[in-house]
Amino acid sequence: MYSIAYFVGSMVILLLIWSLVSAITKSEIPGPIATWSVFFEMLKDPFYDYGPNDKGIGIQLWSSIKRVMMGFGMGSLLAIPLGMLMGGSKFTMNLLNPLIQVLRPVSPLAWFPLGLLAFKASEGATVFIIAITSLWPTLINTAFGVSSIPDDHKNVGKAFGFSRWKYITKILIPFALPHIITGLRLAIGVAWMVIVAGEMLSGGVGIGFFVWDSWNGLSLEKILSAILIIGFVGLLLDKFFNGLQNYFAYENRK
Amino acid sequence: MITELENEILIEKRSETSNCISVKNVTISFKTNGKGTFTAVKDIDLDIKKGEIVSIIGHSGCGKSTLMNSISGMVRPTFGEVTVNGSRVTGPGPDRGIVFQNYSLLPWMTVYRNVYEAVDSVLKNKSALEKKEIVEYNLKMVNLLQHKDKLPGQLSGGMKQRTAIARAFAINPSVLLLDEPFGALDALTKGSMHVELLKIWNLNKRQQTIVMVTHDIEEAIFLSDRVVVMNDGPEATIREIVDINIPRPRNKKDIVHLPEYMEVHDKLLSLLVKNLSIEDVIFE
């Protein structure tokens, strides 16, 4: 109950600051009310499709989410096994750690041309940059989770002669799972940030493209609406993984 | 001529006297951070017969657990060797059931699952139904059947301990290794766990060999046939092996009045504790 009250309070602060900025700039940046009327129009028919450069916000959003999920999914499918491999042996950890440290800080935009070259299409390139920038948090957290399995748990496997498969499924994964999900939660945040930049470069359809297209059309109300949508979808994605985190935290499952 | 009967008796005698666990001239050293080695135990010789209950007792850090771990196979001796049932120990194995000092239950599994996964791993050839029966039988033995669906986090220390014991017994090992199994329990729970342990041992016709690490003299006397007293580490050696000649079944309340009990208790106490009293201070 209180969390809802805090959320509302927080939104009120946002609206106040927003209105203030709008007043200072003499409505060059549109205020909440002006934005709301445009936003409302957008929501009235979110799935219209009048050709390649004029689609409803729902279609834009949905194509972005699909892209994010593809990139995020592919990155995670690579990151989780690799992270387990790293966490499982000091050798692979020491061998791969410098590589990760070098590649991790690279901006998604820097990867974009490589993606274009590899996939010969902007669609593939966008998914590629999401995958390659969102896999690091999952990789690092998985490796950390697996490497911090207590000796007590490992000894159970040794003492009762667990097979490799039993060790992985009954000890390694259950122990590392909360860490993996924390990684995924950070990764989806990164992926959702990268999508806007990616689509601005790639064009076509998507929430990032919509922002850029609205800038070209000089509709700041649409840009602000899109920012709100991006923010709320990000919040929902985070909440979803937060829920997963709580569900799989075995300490809490009582 | 040796008759068949005599032969049988001979074989029986031989198997009676044959050692189940044999620790020969074992020294265990660990590398310490970069430079030098730390020798935990040195020149240990210890033979344990089948069906015997032996306690290893000594001060903290005297290498009791290290010695125990060389039998379980968790630690490899630097020199010497350990044999169990005639074969050399090179690693942990299902012929030795281990109850760890801190229970080591897997916190994401129910009591039932914790025992089941061990049984499933060791007794691969049994059918699913047989495995289920084994798990339930062992949980019943430690009075945990009604708690089988609880997670370790929901259990008291005594219940966790009983789960760990059920898990160790369920794989039907010929040797049971207990590393300070009752250390974390309150005195009342401890007392009933001792009785439980002997009950299970009796149920298995006293065929299982039990080695237990402890620092509790009363516990050692009540449970053991022999008590191994260790010197203080590093380079700990066996100080003395004390026989406990108190007939079984033993009653906790009665045995303390036996002269044998008092004698052996005094002996162990003086082996372990140097100063039995503090000097009187005279205030002037």
From TrEMBL, chain B:
Q: Where in the cell is it found?
A: Cell membrane
Q: What broad class describes the main subcellular location of this protein? A: membrane
Q: Which PROSITE patterns match?
A: ABC_TRANSPORTER_2
Highest taxon above the source species: Bacteria
Coiled coil feature spans: none
Among InterPro entries, the record links this protein to:
AAA+_ATPase, ABC_transporter-like_ATP-bd, ABC_transporter_ATP-bind, NO3_transporter_ATP-bd-like, P-loop_NTPase
Q: Which protein are we looking at?
A: ABC transporter ATP-binding protein
Cellular component GO terms, alphabetical? plasma membrane
**How is this protein situated with respect to the membrane?**
Peripheral membrane protein
- Tell me the keywords, alphabetical order: ATP-binding, Cell membrane, Membrane, Nucleotide-binding, Transport
Key word ATP-binding present: yes
Q: Name one GO molecular function term.
A: nitrate transmembrane transporter activity
Specify the ABC transporter domain's residue ranges.
Answer: 21-257
**Pfam family of this protein, just one?**
ABC_tran
